[in-house]
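Sharing in case it's useful to others searching the archive later.

Someone asked me privately for the predicted structure of RNA polymerase sigma factor, so I'm posting the question and my answer publicly. Question first, with the sequence:
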Amino acid sequence: MRVDEREGMREVYAASASRLMAQVYAMTGDFLEAQDVVQEAFARALAAPGWLRRVDNPEAWLRTVALNLARSRHRRRLVFDRLARTGLLHPAGAHEPSLSPDHVALVRALQRLPVAIRKALVLHHIADLPVKEVAEIEGCSVDAIKTRLARGRRALAVALDDELPPDPPERVVLASNKGIICA
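And my answer, the predicted structure tokens:
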């Protein structure tokens, strides 16, 4: 690997690794798994000399690799879980990352959504991609993505309203011609 490629990889890592981990975490609900598959995606990129010159959008390529790895691991886990239910194996307990309660509630609520809606929400709101680009990635129309986003936001609002403690009441400030009234 040449020096300029190594520098390019460092720049891509610095610019996108944390975003990719957040996106994969939102899709999988498992922070350690997200870290692992993003790391593996970067390792695969390093193992392919010249890959940086061949792709138009390195972060999109890495996201695709990381999500494909997560899907493959999920499928393997399903097979393992079926085997574990036979009683021949004893699976290890789930590992929860130490994150804020709001973050955990959001990921839990995202996990309850259908995959297509969850992916649209993650790509648009967490990956900060425009609706048009999300539609291209998903291979559907912009209107379909807007519908998924609206349905997803409604479902999250209901789910998070049930899980999060109520916000403290805000002070309402009303202006009148005699001064300011606080309620």
